[in-house]
């Protein structure tokens, strides 16, 4: 065992380093002797597969040894001192960095399958359902690994190789463990691979995670690509030949290959198309070509030849050769109208650029045996230093990990201060995020932003190259509570949200309670509900209404989150079977699944009109299938036939679902225009609109029936409509045919 690894290592390592790797292999084999993985195979296969991937990246001998030994400290009772004495301090440090230890040096408790309890959504709230000690250790272990990575990036290269093999063998674990590990991989490890420029590893981790997190969509896309495989290959073959002939005609020696798009990127594209009302069958730009030439100058010559052959699509060109990405990626990207007028993505690069694009930091000479640092490498990897800075500034492990996920592991934009200093922010960050990045007090006192010389909304996303000037108040009153509303999009970075929330936590508790109570009351005007605030507080896990008010007033919880859980129209005078829509198939339209039963017809109840994303329950009728209600529907309370309630869940559906609500506002010129502009910006279709004027007090009521993707989008729409000048209330109502049925 291990012959394939040694053969691969022998192809690139100096001869005198081979015995070092062989010794590590022998030691790991002996240490793991008798141990089995959950699948039943010998445990040594896991560290061996990890090392083989590291060898594929041509990593140095110390990294290979650490890959082989990365589990011996936690699984075989091997000490740091023993590893240091047997191998080297360098190897022992690498193994220690990827070993999951508590702050006191003790091993973190594990499940009996060799894995650790994980949260499924990646946020602090979800952690409360688990043992707090284990959850805290989980976040602390991740923090330890990432900080070690900032000092030596080989730490995370080993961890990524380890995670890849774990994902490839994930089917041996129970479903809940598969989902938890896949979620962490998609949230943490795939973005890490992206920031390190390790594209090959990134897409493999994403596709494996996608398989477990969205199995239905994974199978659907796989079937689509399989069905169109012959058609796709035939098209790529014709396009490749045409492009090779065009490049040869101008004297360029080039290799043209088809580039398959990985499944998760297609899934993301489908989601973007769904927002535009397009279906899976309407996605044509799944074709991609890659052109390899000898030199950088040839890249630009090839670009000219390609644009001379096929017309480029406006706005679809990026030059990452002149301005490489911060993960060292270089290439020319263009999208053209290729054969048969289909959009075709083309990447142009040299073989050296390709090596870096596939393996990123692992391809850099500094991580090869005897290699030397290259100019500019440290500057391009400056985000690693940011990890250490964040480590010093942030106290809690949960808070720190969330900040890493949102502020560092996402794509970055580079903007300028008026003095010309560069500020790095995650993609989607706003002027308000910029203000908090400059200084906490600048954020607290921010009143406006001027971007590229124009006054701009504080929640408008910034773009590469923007110059931002922040306007501040002479006497700061502190941040606004609306800034913490995620639906309004003022603060996109975790660090800025943390700073704003900390300001509210420092205020007097009584003031927080009063402010939270007023804010909650304002939000609950949207609903028809008969519950007291005390009852609401208990249902979402608070001891009292005061505790709920304080959480909202301090910024720990947004009232909109409470609203989303409590949406209900409250038609409790209706009978169940009298308020149903016509029969429809669950898979074809409603998108609901009856758990444990197939083939049942479903319909949405008109008494509460559930929308995609609501908590729902099914009611089994005698002759017309299953009726879908909101879990909070009054008609479902205190049923005397609980045996007819069935468990249901939303399937993946992009169908638009109708919802009706009334907006109360002070009448003014341009009100309807402003309201419809907000609805249009949210990409929500308006089915009907009526307006009634109240002459006595100069107010009006605007009733809208819209088609949304679900409760999440509807809640976000409500939050944004409330910011329109003159709006003082929004109430969700029943649809027209519901009203008729009640009459």
> In terms of per-residue confidence, which ranges show pLDDT below 50 for 5 or more consecutive residues?
101-132, 369-376, 568-590, 736-743
Number of DSSP helices?
31
Cα gyration radius (Å):
29 Å
> What is the CATH topology of the largest domain?
Hypothetical protein af1432
Give the integer mean of the pLDDT values.
77
Total of domains: 6
Strand content of the residues, in percent? 15-25%
Helix content: 40-55%
> Structural class of the secondary elements?
alpha+beta
Question: What's the CATH superfamily of the largest domain, by name?
Answer: Hypothetical protein af1432
- Strand order within the widest beta sheet: 1-2-5-4-3
- Broad shape: globular
Q: Strand count, sense and closure of the main sheet?
A: 5 strands, mixed
DSSP strand tally: 21
What separation lies between the terminal Cα atoms?
A: 78 Å
Q: What is the CATH class name of the largest domain?
A: Mainly Alpha
| Architecture (CATH level 2) name of the largest domain | Orthogonal Bundle
């Amino acid at each position: 065992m291990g012959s394939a690894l040694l053969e691969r290592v022998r192809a690139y390592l100096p001869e005198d380093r081979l015995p070092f790797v062989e010794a590590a292999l022998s030691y790991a084999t002996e240490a793991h002797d008798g141990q089995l993985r959950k699948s039943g195979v010998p445990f040594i296969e896991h560290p061996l597969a990890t090392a083989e991937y590291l060898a594929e990246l041509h990593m140095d001998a110390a990294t290979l040894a650490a890959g082989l030994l990365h589990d011996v400290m936690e699984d075989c009772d091997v000490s740091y001192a023993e590893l240091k004495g047997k191998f080297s301090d360098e190897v022992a440090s690498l193994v220690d960095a990827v070993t999951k230890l508590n702050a006191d040096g003790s091993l973190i408790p594990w499940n009996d399958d060799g894995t650790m309890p994980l949260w499924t959504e990646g946020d602090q709230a979800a952690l409360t359902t688990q043992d707090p000690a284990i959850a805290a250790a989980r976040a602390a272990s991740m923090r330890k690994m990432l900080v070690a990575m900032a000092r030596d990036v080989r730490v995370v290269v080993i961890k990524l190789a380890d995670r890849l093999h774990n994902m490839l063998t994930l089917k041996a674990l129970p479903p809940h463990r598969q989902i938890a590990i896949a979620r962490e991989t998609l949230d943490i490890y795939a973005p890490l691979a992206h920031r390190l420029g390790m594209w090959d590893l990134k897409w493999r981790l994403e596709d494996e995670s996608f398989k477990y997190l969205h199995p239905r969509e994974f199978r659907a896309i796989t079937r689509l690509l399989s069905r169109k495989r012959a058609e796709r290959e035939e098209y790529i073959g014709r396009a490749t030949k045409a492009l090779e002939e065009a490049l040869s005609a101008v004297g360029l020696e080039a290799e043209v290959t088809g580039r398959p798009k990985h499944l998760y990127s297609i899934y993301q594209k489908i989601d973007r198309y769904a927002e535009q009302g397009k279906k899976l069958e309407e996605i044509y730009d799944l074709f991609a070509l890659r052109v390899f030439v000898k030199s950088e100058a040839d890249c630009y010559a090839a670009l000219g030849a390609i644009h001379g052959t096929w017309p480029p699509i406006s706005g679809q060109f990026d030059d990452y050769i002149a301005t490489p990405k911060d993960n060292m990626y270089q290439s020319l990207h263009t999208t053209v109208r290729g054969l048969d007028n289909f959009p075709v993505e083309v990447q142009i690069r040299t073989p050296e650029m390709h090596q870096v694009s596939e393996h990123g930091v692992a391809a850099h000479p500094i991580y090869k045996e005897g290699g030397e640092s290259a100019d500019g490498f440290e500057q391009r990897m400056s985000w690693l230093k940011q990890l250490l800075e964040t480590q010093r500034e942030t106290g809690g492990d949960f808070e720190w990990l969330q900040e890493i996920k949102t502020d560092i592991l996402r794509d970055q934009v580079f903007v300028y201060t008026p003095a010309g200093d560069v500020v790095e922010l995650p993609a989607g960050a706003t002027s308000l995020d910029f203000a908090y990045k400059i200084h906490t007090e600048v954020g607290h006192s921010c009143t406006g932003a001027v971007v590229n010389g124009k006054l701009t909304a504080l929640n408008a996303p910034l773009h590469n190259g923007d110059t931002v000037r922040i306007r501040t108040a002479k006497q700061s009153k502190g941040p606004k509570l609306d800034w913490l509303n995620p639906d309004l999009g003022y603060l996109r970075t975790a660090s800025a949200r943390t700073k704003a929330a900390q300001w509210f936590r420092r205020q007097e508790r009584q003031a927080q309670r009063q402010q939270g109570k007023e804010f909650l009351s304002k939000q609950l005007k949207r609903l028809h509900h008969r519950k007291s605030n005390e009852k609401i507080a208990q249902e979402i896990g608070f001891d009292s209404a005061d505790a709920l008010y304080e959480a909202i007033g301090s910024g720990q919880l947004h009232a909109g989150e409470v609203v989303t859980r409590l949406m209900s129209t409250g038609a409790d005078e209706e009978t169940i079977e009298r308020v149903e829509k016509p029969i429809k198939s669950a898979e074809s339209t409603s998108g609901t699944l009856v758990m444990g039963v197939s083939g049942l017809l479903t319909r949405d109840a008109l008494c509460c009109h559930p929308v995609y994303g609501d908590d729902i329950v099914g009611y089994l009728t005698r002759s017309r299938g299953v009726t879908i209600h909101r879990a909070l529907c009054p008609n479902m309370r205190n049923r005397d036939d609980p045996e007819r309630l069935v468990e249901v869940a939303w399937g993946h559906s992009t169908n638009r679902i109708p919802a009706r609500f009334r907006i109360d506002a002070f009448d003014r010129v341009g009100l309807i225009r402003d309201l419809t502009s907000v609805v249009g910006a949210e990409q929500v279709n308006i089915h009907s609109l009526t307006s009634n004027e109240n002459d006595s007090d100069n107010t009006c009521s605007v009733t809208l029936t819209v088609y949304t993707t679900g409760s999440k989008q509807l809640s976000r729409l409500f939050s944004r409509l409330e910011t329109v000048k003159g709006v003082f209330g929004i109430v969700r109502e029943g649809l027209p045919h519901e009203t008729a049925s009640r009459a």
